[in-house]
Design a protein that fits this description.
The protein is of the alpha+beta class. It is built from twelve helices and nine strands.
């Protein structure tokens, strides 16, 4: 298949990114300039597909050696997310952005997360490790936990892609359930909760929930939350009641309609384009074969432009092994918080601290939260 390659200088990419991020669709400016900039930005995004696929294959291989129950996925960053990030960080340029291409590993335990990180640290990769952010050892104030590794791609044979950055996210199932619940609630409430922006009650609740999960995994809790488990659970219970948490979240997930395209459920599906529209309570799924990468990216851009002015609507193009894996890796696109709600119910039903995790290696017989 023909992979997209970078066609423009970084200066043109940065100028195009700045224009797209600040463009007012209601302005009387020359719209053709916006379309030209959009093409440049989309080429830059699409060019990350080849190195991203390379890293995803390596992530799946390394991860399965540690945890046979690993779930992996890859995605190209949404245009709306690129625009918001450039708007939030005015000094950042598009070519500096570290997560245009990202792949994700979801492990069944925090210990497995640590082992996979150690496997990367001891590997002989030619790619350059640019960033190693360990938000498990040092959780963000929002409660986000996980490990982010950013690599600069390098190849003697595919030099066109050299220096493109790919981000690897490594999370446990508990960390993943928390992070995707934050995104789901943020979508429903129209608040940027994952950026620590929004209603104080929701922000505080998620910080408390993250600490409860951290204590269950035997890792450091979130700064500013109670260190005593009983006090932590009591405060969580108060917010669960105040927010009417279970009822509100479960109602949304049950109401979502899955709309599949006629191409759905082929054995050779590789790319899944998700269109989530909270107003219609629906998620549209369109699938593409591995060789249809260019077509998939073109369709992705079309859908993003279509949904641009639809409140809460989002699209994402991901690569996973199956639709079931899509739902596990990206439950927020289905407004699905079942796993998270179950974990919160377990955490708040008792004031007894959870037992510390076993020091034994990950066991394939361990409980799988996604079953």
């Amino acid at each position: 298949m023909a992979w997209a390659r970078p066609e423009h200088s970084k200066r043109r990419v940065n100028d195009a990114g700045a224009l797209v991020a600040t463009w007012d669709l209601g302005s009387e400016s020359d719209f053709s300039k916006y379309l030209e900039a959009l093409d440049i930005v989309n080429n830059w995004r699409s060019a990350h597909n080849f190195p991203l696929n390379t890293f995803h294959v390596g992530l799946r291989r390394r991860g399965r050696q540690i945890d046979s129950g690993i779930i992996t996925a890859q995605r190209i960053k949404r245009l709306s997310s690129i625009e918001h990030k450039l708007d939030r960080f005015p000094t950042m340029t598009l070519s500096q952005m570290q997560d245009i291409g990202g792949c994700r590993a979801i492990m069944r335990s925090s210990k497995a997360v640590r082992q996979l990180c150690e496997a990367y640290a001891s590997s002989d990769l030619k790619h350059t490790l640019a960033v190693n952010d360990d938000y498990v050892a040092s959780p963000k104030p929002s409660g986000y936990r996980g490990v982010h590794l950013v690599y600069k791609y390098f190849s003697d044979r595919k030099a066109d892609y050299n220096t493109l950055k790919i981000e690897i996210q490594i999370r446990s199932q508990l960390q993943h359930a928390w992070a995707t619940a934050v995104e789901t609630v943020g979508t429903l409430q129209q608040q940027a909760l994952k950026s620590s922006q929004g209603e104080k009650d929701w922000l505080r609740f998620f910080a408390l929930a993250s600490s409860a999960f951290a204590l269950r995994e035997g890792t450091p809790p979130v700064p500013g939350t109670p260190s005593a488990y009983r006090e932590l659970v009591r405060e969580m219970r108060d917010y669960v009641r105040r927010l009417d948490l279970a009822k509100r979240l479960q109602a949304y997930g049950h109401a979502m309609k899955l709309l599949s395209s006629p191409r759905h459920n082929r054995g050779d599906d590789h790319y899944f384009l998700l269109e989530m529209n909270p107003a219609l309570m629906s998620v549209q799924v369109t699938t593409f074969k591995f060789a249809e990468s260019t077509l998939a990216n073109q369709k992705y851009l079309e859908v993003e432009r279509k949904l641009k002015d639809v409140p809460g609507a989002e699209a994402v193009l991901v690569s996973v092994d199956s639709l079931d894996a899509v739902r596990k890796a990206y439950p927020n696109y289905f407004l699905d918080t079942q796993v998270f709600v179950r974990l919160i119910q377990e955490a708040t039903k008792t004031l007894t601290p959870p037992p510390r995790p076993s020091r034994r290696p990950p066991d394939t017989r361990q409980l799988d939260l996604f079953k």
